[in-house]
Automatic annotation (TrEMBL):
The keyword Ribonucleoprotein does not apply. InterPro entries: Beta-lactam_resp_regulator, Peptidase_M56. Signal peptide: none annotated. Pfam families: Peptidase_M56. Residues 12-327 form the Peptidase M56 domain. The lineage of its organism: Bacteria, Bacillati, Bacillota, Clostridia, Lachnospirales. It comes from Vallitalea longa. This is Peptidase M56 domain-containing protein. Keywords: Membrane, Transmembrane, Transmembrane helix.
């Protein structure tokens, strides 16, 4: 239901904005109808119809709706960031965090402020909001109209099959002449049927003209004008407007204006088509063309007692009068676009076709746990399906399947340095690294129903496979080849697939990058135990930052770092791709979409402190593994003294300009705040730091948010 509700909200918004523009345009038409180019007039209306059709419309800073107060974008980062390249968005681990992070073990128990998510669950499940009711009503109307239109079209097509194709050479010669005049190359067939009230053309790829039987016998010149008018409809692709009208009415059936707009645009199509034909025939033929229209109208009225309602003489006698008036006043080149009218059409489309850049507001209804079961931290995080943990206990809190863990840690100074869980793949991954040389291997626990070979083949090509028994476990040694050559021991235990990557070889040089003796692999296999049987305290990585994935993690971080911090709960800075903290260095960091980072800490960052003391940055070579140049200057922003730091990376092969990091750091109420972003080679990326700083400082702190929720 939430998806339908969201679509319905978008429909209401689009229908509302489209209605405003349509009313303005109708007023302009009323007062200046004689001054507006006929073709431009139709194009402008078509833009409105198309806008009615789209549920999702792009945002634009030139949208006219930015003028409305509720769409003010002064406080949005979407306007602040000039360019955020895709290359930045794809990076999840920015290189500009250059401090060495260390951690000590912690054993402090977190006092949990538990929220009973089961309270009133029954009420939530049965409650139906007014939005749900209106969404269902709208969807029902949409389906009824759309399905009804399809049924009517199907019945109409069946009726067309009964029509007789015209093979009269004189008439066919007229068709060919009209095609040549209008530049139509496709074959156009002609059919006759006495039950139709007026002529029309149908078919996008195989055009077919249907003419009432009584019109075949009229004067040759009149018949030529009729056929040319219909061929002109095909040349101009007017059937597209009919399709758009049906879609717009189906989506916005509750809006009376869309029905009126659809009628108006059909009338304008006929006028524009007449103008197009006359532009091809020349101003001298306008009188004869008008007489042909009157002759046809007279025959139709006499034969059917009323004006036809098909596309040729649409709507009413008043519409026919408009057409005759336009024909009588026709001047050459009135159909053609001038540079001015084309520019006006493009500008109009950009102004009204796009939505405003919406201001991102904080949600006053923020709760500990939402209706979808997510707590307030899970709700603002946009994880990529790969979660990293620094302790086994924390990993096991998120894993909902039974796994076994090797209690034995290999010799030669290996350590279990990282833990990962991929919810979408239902897979746990443990990484062991050698402290001395950095060489390591991955130990993967995979519960995927797919065969382990499929898992390995996703990364590389399987080149060899041999059966082998290690530690009493029957499995296979599978060799894969890609940029590296890997040796993997694959086996299954209690329905769980295990893959130990025990050897890694450089493919080009055949040099061994990392290798674990099979004797150590055997010890790991024999030490497999359930998490309840092993001491998980030793499975803690004290040298890595800790990741935050839910409210419990955030509360623990608050206790560990010992200070309150700003926590914007809206999407002003984009989605949070990850939130981390360091209990030793006492800081918390938000990595937002587009590699936009926010750091907060009670102690001055090293380079900030250095610049305060010396007015410059001084580093030993060992302290700048990536940066070739560091520059800084003081700026006054929002009444605060801010250090702007520009760090340039060493040039890589093929680069002419360095990649850069730009950081803004300031001090406020005992806390140092840093906002930074990454600038790839040669890109112009800037930030409206005034609004960004203001939004961060105006945001509530974590303690304030928790207090508000109690």
């Amino acid at each position: 239901m939430s998806i339908i509700n969201k679509i319905f909200e978008n429909v209401l918004f689009t229908s509302f904005t489209s209605t405003l523009i349509a009313l303005i345009l109708l007023l302009i038409r009323y007062f200046f109808k004689s001054k507006i180019n006929m073709r431009l007039n139709q194009v402008l209306l078509s833009v409105i119809i198309l806008k009615f059709c789209l549920v999702i419309v792009p945002e634009s800073s030139i949208s006219i709706f930015n003028l409305l107060p509720q769409f003010n974008t002064e406080n949005t980062i979407s306007e602040s960031l000039t360019i955020i390249p895709e290359s930045i968005e794809s990076q999840q681990n920015p290189r500009y965090s250059i401090e060495k992070h260390t951690h000590s073990d912690y054993n402090k128990e977190l006092e949990e402020n538990t929220y009973d998510a089961n309270d009133n669950v029954g009420t939530r499940n049965v409650a139906i909001s007014m939005k749900d009711i209106l969404s269902v009503i709208w969807l029902s109307g949409f389906l009824i109209i759309l399905i009804g239109a399809c049924i009517l079209q199907w019945r109409f097509n069946n009726r067309l099959k009964l029509c007789m194709e015209i093979d009269n050479n004189n008439v066919l010669n007229i068709v060919d002449k009209c095609k040549t005049t209008l530049g139509v190359k496709r074959d156009v067939k002609l059919y006759m049927e006495n039950r139709f009230k007026s002529p029309f053309i149908i078919g996008f790829f195989t055009p077919r003209i249907y003419i009432p039987e009584q019109l075949i016998k009229i004067e040759t010149e009149d018949l030529e004008h009729i056929i040319m008018h219909e061929v002109a409809h095909y040349k101009r692709k007017d059937s597209i407007y009919n399709i758009l009208s049906i879609i717009a009415i189906s989506i916005n059936w509750f809006n009376p204006l869309i029905w009126k707009m659809s009628s108006i645009i059909r009338s304008d199509i006929e006028l524009a088509c007449d103008s197009y034909v006359l532009d091809k025939l020349g101003e001298d033929n306008a009188v004869s063309y008008g007489k042909s229209m009157l002759a046809v109208a007279r025959i139709i009225i006499t034969g059917n007692k009323q004006l036809g309602l098909a596309c040729y003489f649409s709507n009413s006698k008043k519409q026919l009068e408009r057409r005759i008036t336009m024909i009588s006043k026709f001047k050459e080149n009135t159909y053609k676009f001038t540079a001015a009218t084309l520019s006006a059409a493009l500008l109009f489309g950009g102004v009204v076709f796009t939505n405003p850049v919406k201001a991102k507001q904080q949600d006053p209804q923020l709760k500990y746990v939402n209706e979808d079961g997510k707590d307030l931290i899970e709700n603002i995080l946009n994880t990529t399906g790969y979660k990293t943990y620094t302790s086994l206990d924390r990993l096991l809190e998120d894993v909902d399947f039974n796994i076994m863990i090797p209690e034995y840690i290999p010799q030669d100074d290996y350590r279990l340095c990282s833990y990962a869980f991929m919810p979408q793949e239902n897979k746990v991954k443990l990484h062991y690294s050698n402290r001395n040389n950095g060489k390591g291997f991955w130990f993967v626990v995979n519960i995927s129903p797919t065969d382990p070979e499929e898992f390995l083949a996703k990364k590389d090509t399987i080149v060899d496979k041999q059966s082998k028994i290690i530690g009493g476990i029957k499995g296979e040694v599978i060799t894969t080849s890609g940029p590296y050559i890997y040796k993997n021991f694959v086996f299954k235990k209690d329905g769980i697939n295990y893959v130990i990557e025990y050897k890694k070889i450089y493919k080009d040089s055949n040099e061994v990058h990392g290798e674990l003796p099979l004797s150590e692999v055997e010890k790991m296999i024999k030490s497999l135990k359930s998490p309840e049987e092993i001491e998980t305290d030793k499975f803690v990585d004290s040298d890595a930052v800790k990741y935050i994935y839910n409210l419990k993690d955030m509360k623990k971080a608050r206790d560990m770092i010992g200070f309150d911090f700003k926590l914007p709960m809206d999407t002003y800075f984009g989605d949070y791709s990850n939130i981390t903290y360091d209990e030793d260095m006492k800081y918390i960091s938000y990595n937002c979409s587009g590699d936009f980072n926010i750091d907060q800490r009670p102690v001055a960052p090293y380079y900030y402190d250095q610049f305060v003391k010396y007015g410059k940055f001084e580093m030993a070579d060992a302290e700048k593994p990536w940066f070739d140049k560091m520059e800084g200057k003081w700026e006054n922003i929002n009444g605060r003294k801010v250090l702007k730091e520009i760090d340039s990376y060493e040039l890589e092969e093929g680069q002419t300009e360095p990649d850069k990091n730009i950081d803004y750091t300031w001090y406020d109420n005992d806390i140092y705040y840093s906002i930074g972003y990454y600038v790839p080679e040669g890109k112009e990326v800037s930030i409206d730091i005034e609004n960004v700083m203001k939004h961060l400082m105006d945001s509530k702190s974590f303690d304030e948010i928790i207090q508000d929720e109690k």
